[in-house]
Amino acid sequence: AALDQTFLQSVLADDAIVTALLQKHALGSEVPASVALTLENSAQTTLNGEDITVDGSTGSVLVTPSILGGPSTVISADVQTSNGVIHVVDKVLALAALVPPPSPPPPAAP
């Protein structure tokens, strides 16, 4: 699935939202993959003050919420930088205001 281009352009045009999105992708502490893999549905507070949920119990590190719905998966872990470590994810993490609503359940059979 891809983001609607109108939605994407409106987000990119708003500096406050872009800043909040970037801060949603950063923690105030370093969490190496070896630690993330031990976490199970663990709430982690990001630099914008919102929580993400990190789950390494499946053998992959999954992070929610994402803009496209479902978890985001860490696809490259422990990338060292001058001020910490980066884990590359395959989906943009969502601000609480941008989390897609859950899909409605299918209609009950008669």
From TrEMBL:
InterPro entries: FAS1_dom_sf, FAS1_domain
Domain (FAS1) ranges: 1-93
Transmembrane intervals: none
One protein family per Pfam: Fasciclin
Gene3D superfamilies named among the record's database cross-references: FAS1 domain
Protein name as annotated: FAS1 domain-containing protein
Source species: Emiliania huxleyi
Source species taxonomy: Eukaryota, Haptista, Haptophyta, Prymnesiophyceae, Isochrysidales
